[in-house]
Amino acid sequence: MEISERSITAILDGAPYATRITARGLETVADEPLDHGGTDIGLRPHELLLGALASCTAITVRMYALRKQWNTGAIRVTASMVRTQEGKVIDTRMQLELRTTESMSPEQRDRLLQIATACPVHRTLLNPISITASLAS
After folding, report:
1. Neighbouring residues of 6: CB distance < 8 A, sequence distance ≥ 6
2. Across 87-102, average pLDDT
């Protein structure tokens, strides 16, 4: 059994929604756009989620291509999401579009698509996720 642990801290201490996110000494900002009361200085939380999926997909594809010594050129992954809610029922559909700037054979393209859907974030999102919350004293 492989156990992997990650931790991120989010601090909201000033502007209405601008939130500092810190991990491993690195920092980014999440926020809401102006029309939602934010200051629009960072990505929205769902955009960060899509960014995690898109970047993990690109990294996974690059790692595989390097091992195979395939020249993909730039790898571009666009992640999009449609989320509908009716009462408490939420239906979320995510779509990935993968592009390379170098020509690939049909077999290579098929294999890259298989690899793209096996990135760690993709696998995490497709498997049961348990979230607990506690209020620290």
Report:
1. 23
2. 96
